Amino acid sequence: MLGRLSKLLFVVLLVIGIIAGCNTSSEKTGGTNNQNESANNDESDNGSEEKANESTEDYGDTGGIKLPIVDKPVEITWMLVSEVNNLKDKAIIKEIEKRTGIKLNIQEYSSGTYSEKLNTVVASGQLPDIWHGLPVAKVNELGQKGAVVAINEYLDELPNYKKLYAEENDWVMKSFSDDKGNMYTWPIYGVNRDVNHGFLYRKDIFDKHGIELWNNTEEFYQALKKLKEEYPDSAPYSSKTAEFIFRDWGFGWGITGAQYPAYFDETDKTWKFQFTDQKHKDMLDFMKKLYNEGLLDKEFITDTEASWTTKMTTGKSFVTFDWIGRLDMFYEQVKADNSEYDLRYGNPVGPENTIRSLDKIANWGHTVTKNDKSEIALKLLDYLSSPSGAELIMVGIKDEIYKEDGDGKITYPDLNLDVVGIKDLENQYGMWLEGMYLRADERSVYFNYTEKEQEAQDMMQGKMQPIDPILKFNDKENDTIAKLQPNLLTAGIEFSTKYVMTKSYGDKEWDAWLEEAKRLKVDDFVQVYNDAQKRFDSE
């Protein structure tokens, strides 16, 4: 647990002090096609808008970016996450070159090694042309040192970025820019599902014993008790998320958000620290009751995915918190031995009766290195942020990779699979590469919900937690957060774990923890968020 937090802190801190001497190739690059040339002519606004909506060649709606992007071949290096080798030979990478004139030199690393490799690359200053993976604040630091390019300086050359983030969602420019208003990161648009995680339960077991799906916290407790009565050797609720159980459950108590462990309290419009909130203690007391009665797995904080999988598929556990893809995945694993297995999405737990709302716009720190290829790289990202680019990366090439029938149903004849997943598309065609998809196409298989997944989407309508504001911090505030949050989070997790697992822990220990949190400067930590909120509200 501590190792994971230390590693994250290492990732964030490694870039501090980096010099601006990043790779600035003197290699001659191809000229770009300027889609804004017509802006210099005396055309009407309507005429310009019609021109922006025209498709280039037969590639669909490019949002106004002209293809090809360059008039002679240019190579762009792109560092991203993939387990697939030889991506240069995949159909999508070749198609990008065909459409844009840009040859991609993909530097792919597995999800397990990417962060470490990125640290090394950033520290060396020899950055690829396009990359992602650092927190926005650290990318902004690099931008201020001249290492990465200010995207806002090219807005008129980037019609899709301008429309999505400077016009339709202008809060993005406010929240993710640096103190001077410069924007160094490229967000991702529309990729999140409405419902992607939550409580899951064995409906077949519930039905067998006449146990109703819970509608509140007390009913959840009673359901677990009945399961324990029927299966005395079981741990009705098990978990594989280790310390993140406090975050995941916290949504139902209204004390968790995207800025975990800080959260925005909608009742008084202030920011607070989850682990010192009275509602967090209420949640711990509930978890403690489950733990003491054998309803919460004794290994909830240490269990591995393999062990947890065994429990959830062999009748040792019946309720958990996980990704909705698990609903069908577990059935496929066990159907030969247990065709009645039926894992379903359950209701929230906690007094708020809400689940996490996922942002329509995400920011993974996509950025472009400042060099003589910056404008070309930016225009490539802009194309991939268009409807045409989204189709290419998420759905494929029509009539070559996929077929679409009269009802809009997408199929992949060459794959010959009953169910096509995003990993199948990545392996076969180079689609859905983490770091390359920048805009969603709702026809993608990712949004083709199974019956169980669709049930989850339908059940949770009206049960979404409000989305916390995305704040912009100044350098001093970022330093304060970087200095205080790791210790506060680690201490909060350790105390919470002990509180749940130690029978003697109660009000006395809680009060002592509050004093310890003050010593760790929790008030200073929270003040940073509230100061930033005041600026956000005034803009």
Structural class: alpha+beta
Rounded average pLDDT? 90
Any idea what the CATH superfamily of one domain is called? Periplasmic binding protein-like II
CATH-scheme architecture of one domain: 3-Layer(aba) Sandwich
Main attributes?
10% strand, three-stranded antiparallel beta sheet, alpha+beta, D-Maltodextrin-Binding Protein, domain 2, 539 residues, single chain, 12 strands
What does this structure look like?
With 539 residues, the protein is an alpha+beta fold. It has a domain of 227 residues: Periplasmic binding protein-like II (D-Maltodextrin-Binding Protein, domain 2, 3-Layer(aba) Sandwich), CATH 3.40.190. Helices cover 40% and strands 10% of the residues. It is built from 20 helices and 12 strands. The strands form 5 sheets. Strands 3-10-4 form a 3-stranded antiparallel beta sheet. A 3-stranded antiparallel beta sheet has the order 8-5-9. A two-stranded parallel sheet has the order 1-2. The longest helix has 27 residues.
Helix-strand layout with pairing:
Elements: H1 2-14, H2 45-52, E1 74-81, H3 91-100, E2 102-109, H4 114-124, E3 130-131, H5 136-144, H6 159-167, H7 171-176, E4 186-189, E5 197-202, H8 203-208, H9 217-230, H10 245-250, E6 262-265, E7 270-273, H11 278-292, H12 305-313, E8 319-323, H13 326-334, E9 343-345, E10 361-368, H14 374-384, H15 387-394, E11 403-404, E12 410-411, H16 422-429, H17 451-459, H18 475-501, H19 507-519, H20 522-538
Parallel strand pairs: 1-2
Antiparallel strand pairs: 3-10, 4-10, 5-8, 5-9, 6-7, 11-12
Helix pairs in contact: 11-18, 18-19, 18-20
